[in-house]
Structures are given as structure tokens and as C-alpha cells.
Amino acid sequence: QARGAPHLVFIPSAGMGHLLPFSRFIAALASEGAVDISIVTALPTVSEAESEHFAALFAAFPAIRRIDFNLLPLDDATLAGTDPFVLRWESLRRSAHLLGPLIAGATPRASAVVTDVTLASQVIPIAKKELHLPCHILFISCATMLSFLAYFPTYLDGANADHLAGDVDIPGIGRIPVDYPPNVLRNLDSLFTKQFIANGREIAEIDGILVNTFDALEPEALAALRDGKVVPGFPPVYAVGPLKSTATDKEAAHGGASSPIAWLGEQPARSVVYVAFGNRNAAALEQIREIGAGLEASGCRFLWVVKTTVVDRDDTAELKDVLGEGFLERVQGRGLVTKEWVDQEAVLKHPAVGLYLSHCGWNSVTESAAYGVPMLAWPTLGDQRLIAKVIKSGGFGLWVEHWSWDGGEDSLVRGAEIAEKVKEVMGDEAISARAKEISQEATKAVAEGGSSHWSMQEFLATLS
Ligand code: BUP
User: Fold this and answer.
1) Interval between CA 64 and ligand 1 midpoint (Å)
2) ipTM computed for the complex
3) Is pTM beyond 0.90 here?
């Protein structure tokens, strides 16, 4: 790094969906070598995947400094049963007061802090009032979700409500039906709701927000935020996506003849349905079996990543028991099922993949958009229904809105319907053409002179 280069301190949060955009952004900066970088690291991580990812990142970029963040114990019986990732966010938040001295002690002196949004309301005052440093957010969801987060406090004040109680009209964006935002916001007592409202109230104090999106993907939401329609005087929004991994070649590490990528290499172009529901969505066994039945009945080739637990370390089930008698034998040769972490970016980039049946995590959607893979959206929780809306209005996928993940007898999505929709999107030329167009726009955005490239330059200029 150049002497006197700005020193950015990154504070990522828990979950691969949070860590990956940080590491991608950091890898892009580190490769350019124009800034010094430190990462506040809370170990051990919740999942094995995060642990391996941190190790690979620090190994690939030895110049990046690690600031160890020892969390205070979270002794709070009222939080029993909370999602382990949300619980970790709370742990990070309740230990955040320790960050001031940690960052103050960094050498060279920190020039700015970039935090995950889940910690925003705690970190912003520390960075700005205690450390007198500029503070930015690297937002890990879409600009539409950012608009919702930013506008939610105004909605609550206007509706004289303390939780989500109806549709939300966001200026410049339009009406968001009550069942699109995170469902849990209807419950004031949930930890997530408290964190979400606190972060939303503080966000206007930030110096800038980096978002893993690009102008052609979310033109209206970005314009509404930047024009101050959502919240007057909103901080600068830098759309710097789609972020791509540059740090590690995971396939090289985990590859071999039996790897999914090697298998894809033997399949015809655009013939494979890739099926994955993210790293922290555990489906009910019955629903998993209906998905299997659907894939089998579709007649398509498929690569399916199955998760049966929220945290990967807990997943000890045998695939053959999960999928049911004879399934693996029946689909042998045309279907590959795995419980292992796959290099999803490499999968979506592969010419054999023709469709992504997805839970609609934002990283997954930006990856699909970047590589022009049409989507069949099956959102589960959190921001995923708002993200499915982005897919639908972008025209690069189909969202069957009544598909839920409740797992109850009435709401189980049956194999026959899954097969029908898979075949429908696989054969939809308009969706396929639009996916290709979006992918070209994504390439343009990050190329020299593209909108995301410019946004990145603008952000870097604030550091000098
Ligand atoms: Br599973 C899996 N390999 O096997 P999202 C995921 N990923 O590379 P999240 C792999 O993890 P929420 C696997 O490419 C994406 O970058 C995937 O992030 C990668 O969803 C990331 O898509 C997952 O944002 O759920 O975090 O699972 O919606 O809660 O963020």
C-alpha cells in the first residue's frame, strides 16, 4: 500500500449473505492496492462457511489487518429460541461500545469506518462522535430494501404505529404490500424488529451508503433515494454492484472430478436447473421431498444444494434419508444433489446452467443477474419477497407469489406445480432474453466508465 493511503476499517456482520459482499468489496479494493484495510473480526463465527471464508480471505490478502473483536457473553434468557444469526447481530451490537478503543488503537490511524447495516445504530455514533471519523454502510440487500428501511420510521410516525400494520407507500417507489417486507416486522417484540427500527432511525446520519446493485437493475429505487424522495436529505448512495469474488478460487480448493463444476462440464448448454435456498434457510422435510418430486417430474437436469438446518455445523442428516427411498438412484446421471458448500458464482457462470430456482437472497440474485441466468423466485423470509419484486419488475424471472415456506399441509407446494413452473421458465424466451440484457448491463456497469465504476470512484474520492 502507498504511504499515507487511506485506512478503511470494515465491520462485517454474521451470516454468509453479510460476509460475502464485504469480502468481495474488500477484495476489489485490496487488488487495486490504493487503500489500507482492516477487518473487525468476531471469532468463532456462527457457521463453518464463514470461518472458512475468513481464513481464505486473510490468506489471499496478507496485507489486510485483522482487528480481533472479543464479544461480551450474551446472557439474556428472553432471547432463547432466537435465530442464531440474529442473536449474533445482537451480541455484536451489545459489544459495540468496545469498538471505539479498538479502532482508535489501529495503525495507521483509521480514515473511515464501513459497517454492516445490522450494527448501524450502534456503530454510527461511535464512529462519528467518539472517533470523529466518516462512517459508511455497505448495504447487503437491494436498493428497494434500503428504501424500505430508510422510510420505515417515517411510516411508523405517520401511522402512529410501533410495528408494520399495513401496506407502505414509499414516496418515489410506490405501494409495498404488507406481506412483502420482513414478516417479523409485524411483531414489535421481536429482536429483529427492534434492531431494524433503531438502524433505520440512525441511517440518515451516515456519510454514504454503498449498495451491491447497479443503476440498470433498480433504476427507480436508486433515483428515489438519490433525489431525496424517500427521505429528504438522504446521504449519498453509491451503487457499486454487482460485486464479484476475486479473493479465492474455491473451486480449485474443493474441486476434482466429482465436483459440481466438473459435472456441469458434462451437461449440454442451458440444460441444468440450479436449485439452492441460501446458507441459512432450512426447509421442512416434506417440502424438500416435494421439491425432489418436482425436479424429477420436470424431466430437466438439475444441481440441487440441500440444507436441512439453519446452521451448517448442525447438519448431520444423510442425503438419502432426507430425499427418500430410491430418489438418488432414479435421478442418477441427470441430477446432482449435494449438502456441501458449492462455489455458487462458478455454478451460475457455467454455460450449462439455464435456470436458478432460488430463495432470493440478494447476493444470489445479483450473481444470477450478472451471469444472465433466468430465475424462478421462491422467497422464504426477511427481505426476500421485496427482492422477488425486483426480479419480477426487472423481467428476468418468474415469481409464483402464493408459494410459501410454511410447510403446513395446506401451504405445501406440490411437486407437480414445481415441475410445471420449472418447465415454463426454462422455455420462456422473453425472460431468457431479458436475463441476457441485464447481464450485459451488469458488465457495462462495472467496466471502466460504467455507472458502478463511477460510483466506486466517487466513494474513493471521499476518502482522500
Ligand atoms: Br448455500 C451456498 N455456496 O453452497 P444470499 C451459498 N453460496 O457460494 P443468504 C455459495 O452464499 P439471506 C453455497 O453464492 C451467495 O453469495 C451464494 O447469500 C453463496 O442468501 C451467498 O444469496 C448467500 O444473500 O440468505 O445469506 O443465504 O437472504 O438471509 O441473506
Assistant:
1) 24
2) 0.96
3) yes
